């Protein structure tokens, strides 16, 4: 018999390629992790240590649709690769960080840019621009045993067939092992944690009806429709 006074929330899960479901605990997102994107957002990448913000576990959505959110007229795409952890800890050495990775997935960090901009001007947190419902479309997770660890690989993102973003995973300022190690200095990482690893330059607005396609070498492609 349960002592819960209300029904427990559903566990958020993401499909794994080949079968199975990955349960999500937390979602960490690194900001401005590609130099060209940092510049287009008005920052100097050579002067900035890593920083992170969070989305909510149920922001991750594998449905293939992105509902255009309310209270905004400027929703931007940010093409990313998500890193899924199978284990964790604190103060993880960079040299051992990849031991904790279960797999990788394609993902988008959809952003209400106008609301994020207002929050920045007032020195407020970004959640209203970043952590709204279904703001992180995600594809199936590919196990490390199948795809290896991705330190390089071409990334392209199109909207209605038009190239918007292009880069390579080797252009990350902070690499995956460094992100894991840095986060573990400030948080206790655990199985089910997800890290969105940043986006190349070219972020821009989408509208209802747009077809977004993200492709990363080694991880295939993901198609998401704005509805």
UniProtKB/TrEMBL annotation:
Pfam families: FAA_hydrolase
UniProt keyword annotation of Metal-binding present: yes
Record GO terms (molecular function): acetylpyruvate hydrolase activity; metal ion binding
Segments forming domain Fumarylacetoacetase-like C-terminal: 27-227
Keywords from the UniProt entry: Hydrolase, Metal-binding, Pyruvate
Protein's recorded name: Fumarylpyruvate hydrolase
Native species: Roseicyclus mahoneyensis
Lineage: Bacteria, Pseudomonadati, Pseudomonadota, Alphaproteobacteria, Rhodobacterales
């Amino acid at each position: 018999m349960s002592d819960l006074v209300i029904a427990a929330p559903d566990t958020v899960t993401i499909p794994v390629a080949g079968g199975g479901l990955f349960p999500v605990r937390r979602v960490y997102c690194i900001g401005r992790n590609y130099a060209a994107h940092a510049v287009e957002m008005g920052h100097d990448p050579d002067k900035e240590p890593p920083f992170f913000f969070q989305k909510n576990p149920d922001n991750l959505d594998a449905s293939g649709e992105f509902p255009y959110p309310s209270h905004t007229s400027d929703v931007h795409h940010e093409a990313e690769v998500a890193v899924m952890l199978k284990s964790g800890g604190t103060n993880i050495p960079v040299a051992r960080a990849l031991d904790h990775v279960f797999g990788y997935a394609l993902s988008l960090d959809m952003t209400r840019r106008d609301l994020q901009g207002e929050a920045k001007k007032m020195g407020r947190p970004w959640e209203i621009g970043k952590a709204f419902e279904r703001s992180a479309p995600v594809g199936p997770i590919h196990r490390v045993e199948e795809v290896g660890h991705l330190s390089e690989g071409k990334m392209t993102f199109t909207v209605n067939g038009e190239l918007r973003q292009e880069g390579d995973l080797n252009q990350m300022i902070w690499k995956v092992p460094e992100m894991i190690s840095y986060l573990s200095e400030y948080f206790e990482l655990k199985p089910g944690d997800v890290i969105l690893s940043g986006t190349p330059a070219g972020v821009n607005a989408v509208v209802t009806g747009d077809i977004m396609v993200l492709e990363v070498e080694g991880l295939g492609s993901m198609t998401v429709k704005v509805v």
